[in-house]
Amino acid sequence: MSNIGSYEERYKDFTWSVAEKELEFQPGKPLNIGWYCSDRICARGKGDKTALVWESASGAAKTYTYHDVRRLSNTFAVFLQGLGLKPQDRICLFMDKIPELYIGLLGIFKMGGIAQPLFSAFGDESLFVRLDNAQTSAVITQKKHAPKVRKILDKLPNLKHIIIVDHDGKAPLKDRDVAFSLEKADPVETFDAYPSEAETPSLLHYTSGTTGQPKGVKHVHYSLISQYMTARWVLDIRDDDIYWCTADPGWVTGTSYGIIAPWSLGVTQCVMDAGFSAEAWYKFIEKHRITNWYSAPTAIRSLMKAGDEIVKKFDLSSLRQLASVGEPLNPEAVIWSERVFGKAFLDTYFQTETGSIMITNYPDMKIKPGSMGKPFPGIRATVLDPKTYEPYAETGKIGLIGIRPGWPAMMRTYWNNEETYRKKFQNGWYMTGDRASIDKEGYFWFVGRDDDIINTGGHLVSPFEVESALLEHPAIAESAVVSKPDPINMEVVKAFVTLKPGFTPSADLDLEIMNFIRKKLSPLAMPQEITFSDALPKTRSGKIMRRILKAKEWGEEIGDTSTLEND
Ligand code: PRX
User: Fold this and answer.
1) Are the C-beta atoms of residues 433 and 426 closer than 8 Å to each other?
2) Does residue 367 share a domain with residue 459?
3) Torsion-angle region of residue 44: left (phi > 0), alpha (psi -120 to 50) or beta?
4) Which pLDDT score, from 0 to 100, does residue 296 have?
5) Which residues are CB-contacts of 152 (< 8 A; sequence separation ≥ 6)?
6) Which is the closest atom of ligand 1 to the Cα of 324?
7) Given ligand 1 and candidates 205, 230, 398, 446, which is best to mutate, with the most ligand atoms within 8 Å of its CB?
8) Ligand 1 pocket mutation, candidates 260, 351, 371, 435, criterion most atoms within 8 A of CB
9) CATH number at residue 249
10) Are residues 113 and 245 in the same domain?
11) Ligand 1 in contact with 371 (CB < 6 A)?
């Protein structure tokens, strides 16, 4: 039995005031996540405790105490203010998983800015649409990523500063560049954090849309309440734990559970800034005696592929609590983890928009491999009839996952896109856009998305964004992008294109197009396969029918084709 009580007991009368009390937050009083994640921990006598253990692929390592994090986030905040940046300015973090990213997020919160983390593998086009939409004032980045920002600078008149955190003087600073070194700057011992309130915007995370440009999901400081509580009760983070969240803070798991939750709990967390390798991951767990591990199905499937023998080479006995998020966790992965680690990965479900875990397996709750579990205390989730938006009266029917709005980490709107935000609600339910069923015991079973968005390795990719980028290639006349099954990433991006006159399909062109997308958008969005076609299936009104192409890839029934143009 864990120390957090049974699920039923917790669910029964839960209100978020439980978390507010634990965090000593009084409604109406200031709430600044930056302060909660550093100053408050120090004020509670844990300043000398290790907050961050960081390692890079090259073997570099750094350790920071809570006092360090407090002081250095102050230093960041003062530097940003010194540049003239103001509360509510959007400040982008565009970095690998280096300490500056983690500490910089708190620094932005402390000076009242709105942090906009972006995945460092994004190409210039992905970067441009997000910085342009948010009217971002500054980008904090590394010298290796700065050229991507400089490339689009002319189109971003509001972007005043490119802050380089590792400038070494070898190459001169360019237009709008400014150098900042966390290690060399004068440490700032005390700083009055911006007195943000519960509803003050804190963070913008961009997520892919089906038909339009990516949407900026706006979160507020009050999100802390549910991020803290879910981490304590689902990830079961305790005071002496050593926690490892493998997600990148370019995405919601990496901020909600890779920065905010662990540091608000005052726990030691480890970060590995390196690509995937089973051996390196196990070594990391063994070396740091990781107790709580939050990862993703694609990584777990990759570990499974690496085999059982390699697991035996390491002492992984420190592991106590394992959890997974981002995509369907297949039953085999749950069963496998129980066999090799002696612990099953608990599946958890949430979204960029929900900000914190919504539906989840819970310590001490019976696991049904393949099920996402049940709604977290304080969350009313159900499955709705797609026609009436009423919850199904019977169990077992597949419908749309709807959640009653009102939990602390719920997005407040899409940046500059209130209309799309409003469309996310039906009959008083927030519509997740996912399909599932609920069984007799109240367990949720994920079925799939209700739109064309591709979930590749836990990352959402918009077919629309890839199709638009493909059309910018000189050889391409038309494009259609769908998902294709994949044993490790579950889904990968597949493109169908028709060529302009004068171009012929070839292996070289295939590679060139892949590279074009990788550089423009990101490696995640790069099609893993391209089919050159003479024509694409279209409706009589000229809309490309992705559904038909997708059904073929997945070996499914094609369904109704009565509107097909070339019938
Ligand atoms: O389709 C669901 C899938 O990922 C989507 C949310 O993606 P994103 O906003 O990028 O956030 C990812 C990290 C929270 C959901 O709408 N998804 C997330 N968790 C699960 C999942 N699908 C199946 N099982 C899950 N546990």
Assistant:
1) no
2) no
3) alpha
4) 97
5) 124, 127, 128, 131
6) 26
7) 446
8) 351
9) 3.40.50.12780
10) yes
11) no
Q: Is residue 565 part of a domain?
A: no
Residue at 373 is within a domain: yes
**What is the per-residue pLDDT for 538?**
87
What's CA 514's distance to the chain center, in Å?
24
Model confidence pLDDT, tens digit, residues 240-265? 999 999 999 999 999 999 999 999 99
Residue 461 Cβ < 6 Å to ligand 1: no
Total domains in the fold of the chain: 2
Same domain, yes or no, for 358 and 486? no
Q: How many CA atoms lie within 13 A of 256 on its CB side?
A: 32
Sheet containing 177-179: which strands, arranged edge to edge? 177-179, 161-164, 138-141, 90-94, 114-117, 201-207, 215-220, 413-414
DSSP characters over 496-519: EEEEPTT----HHHHHHHHHHHHH
**261 vs 350: CA distance, rounded Å:** 15
Q: Is the pLDDT of residue 76 over 70?
A: yes
Residue 477 corresponds to which amino acid? A
The answer, yes or no, to whether any atom of ligand 1 lies below 6 A from the CB of 355, is no
The residue type of 498 is: T
Q: Are the beta carbons of 49 and 268 closer than 8 angstroms?
A: yes
Arithmetic mean of pLDDT, 220-224: 98
**pLDDT tens, residue by residue, 405-431:** 999 999 999 999 999 999 999 999 999
Task: Determine the atom of ligand 1 nearest the C-alpha atom of 359.
Answer: 26
Q: Are residues 181 and 273 in the same domain?
A: yes
Single residue among 379, 398, 429 that ends a domain in this structure: 379
| 296 CA to centre of ligand 1 in angstroms | 10
Mean pLDDT score, 95-118: 98
Among the listed residues 365, 350, 546, 314, the one whose alpha carbon sits nearest the alpha carbon of residue 434: 350
Residue 34 lies in a domain: yes
For residues 461-489, give the mean pLDDT: 95
Question: What is the C-alpha separation between 393 and 224, in angstroms, rounded?
Answer: 34
pTM exceeding 0.85: yes
Residue-averaged pLDDT of the chain: 96
List pLDDT tens digits, range 31-69: 999 999 999 999 999 999 999 999 998 889 999 999 999
In which domain, by residue range, is 165 found? 7-379
| Atom of ligand 1 minimally distant from the CA of 247 | 13
Which stretches of 272-342 are DSSP H helices?
Answer: 278-288, 297-306, 309-312, 331-341
Phi, psi of 113 (to 5 degrees): -75, 170
For the cut 70, the answer to whether the pLDDT of residue 1 exceeds it is no
Residue 266 near ligand 1, beta carbon < 6 Å: no
On the question of pLDDT at 292 being above 60, the answer is yes
Listed residues 341, 356, 379: the one ending a domain? 379
